[in-house]
């Protein structure tokens, strides 16, 4: 990382003062995503992609596959942040598709918490944590409590279980360009992002850039891309443009586990966070819900605007 960012030549203003309306058609959104992905693969020496198993990061991964195949690049390593509170279906989905796509899947975990045998909601004495985690609490979060609740849905827990875990793997592996599935329309805290977003403050995180190929997508466009491109391209026998109305409404004897779509979306979840902190938006599959008239992440416990702003300043996605 000592050379960063001397060898990188990207436009950090690309996307400034823009929004989804600046890419009004799906074709324009797709074209920009491919352009950003190709530029990043040419510029960064050690890229990686953050993959949650959710729709947005899976769409980013799809673009990487397509661009790598067309322009003869290797698919970068895939980083899955394991905060110990995933739905079992999310973990199974990630492992299933990592195997099918032959991904170089690497887990980012805060092993200090993992070694304590905790259950979500447990209170852990801060004195039981290692010095790294205690320092993060004291110096970055100004936390002075004697105990801490083990949950990724709190400000402190999110930072330790996600951001610290991510920063550790960035430091260890030396990744310089990190692909993320951030979109402008998700939250106000992400509305001013650019396609290439610098994270160069070494006092906060290992210096790197975030790459945001799907900034210009809204939720509807994400699902349109899935049924027109992602699923038909990755699943043999799936008709282009077919939109299932339920988990039973799949063509050619396919089942949800055959698709690069988390089964939780079939159940009515629109945004996947922790098992305890995520709620269904409705009973219908995510893509059949009122995407324009309701809030996508309203079922996510951690996603308050003030909290997200502070977390992003510390290096969260």
* Structural class based on helices, strands and sheet pairing: alpha/beta
| 3D shape | globular
Mean pLDDT, as a whole number?
Answer: 92
Task: Find the count of extended strands (DSSP E, 2+ residues).
Answer: 8
Could you give the distance between the termini? 20 Å
Spans of at least 5 consecutive residues whose pLDDT stays below 50 are none
Task: Give the helices and strands as they follow along the chain.
Answer: HEHEHEHEHEHEEEHHH
What is the makeup of the main sheet? Answer: 6 strands, mixed
Q: Strands across the major sheet, in which order?
A: 3-2-1-6-8-7
Please, how many helices? 9
- What is the multimeric organization of the chains shown? single chain
Q: Strand-residue fraction?
A: 5-15%
Alpha carbon gyration radius: 19 Å
Helicity, as a percent range: 25-40%
Characterization of the model:
It is a single chain. The chain has 317 residues and is of the alpha/beta class. The model has no long low-confidence stretch (mean pLDDT 92). The strands form 2 sheets. It has a 6-stranded mixed sheet. It has a two-stranded antiparallel ribbon with strand order 4-5. α1 crosses α2 and α2 (55-71) crosses α7. It contains 9 helices and 8 strands.
């Amino acid at each position: 990382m000592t050379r960063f960012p001397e060898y990188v030549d990207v436009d950090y203003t690309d996307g400034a003062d823009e929004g989804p309306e600046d890419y009004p058609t799906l074709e324009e959104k797709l074209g920009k995503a491919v352009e950003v992905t190709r530029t990043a693969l040419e510029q960064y020496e050690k890229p990686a992609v953050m993959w949650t198993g959710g729709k947005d990061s899976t769409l980013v991964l799809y673009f990487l596959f397509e661009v790598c195949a067309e322009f003869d690049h290797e698919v970068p390593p895939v980083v899955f942040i394991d905060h110990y509170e995933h739905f079992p279906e999310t973990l199974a989905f990630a492992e299933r598709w990592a195997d099918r796509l032959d991904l170089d899947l690497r887990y980012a975990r805060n092993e200090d918490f993992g070694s304590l045998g905790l259950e979500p909601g447990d209170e852990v004495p801060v004195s039981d944590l290692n010095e790294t985690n205690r320092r993060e609490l004291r110096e970055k979060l100004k936390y002075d409590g004697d105990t801490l609740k083990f949950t990724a849905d709190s400000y402190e827990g999110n930072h330790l279980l996600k951001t610290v875990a991510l920063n550790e793997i960035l430091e260890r592996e030396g990744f310089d360009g990190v692909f993320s599935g951030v979109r402008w329309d998700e939250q106000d805290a992400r509305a001013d992002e650019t396609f290439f977003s610098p994270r160069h403050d070494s006092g906060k995180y290992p210096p790197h850039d975030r790459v945001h190929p799907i900034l210009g997508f809204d939720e509807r466009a994400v699902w349109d891309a899935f049924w027109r491109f992602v699923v038909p391209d990755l699943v043999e026998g799936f008709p282009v443009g077919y939109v299932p109305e339920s988990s039973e409404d799949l063509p050619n004897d396919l089942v949800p586990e055959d698709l690069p779509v988390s089964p939780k979306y079939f159940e009515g979840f629109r945004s996947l966070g922790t098992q305890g902190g995520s709620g269904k938006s409705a009973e219908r599959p995510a893509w059949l819900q009122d995407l324009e008239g309701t809030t996508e992440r309203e079922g996510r416990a951690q996603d308050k605007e003030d909290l997200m702003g502070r977390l992003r300043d510390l290096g969260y996605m």
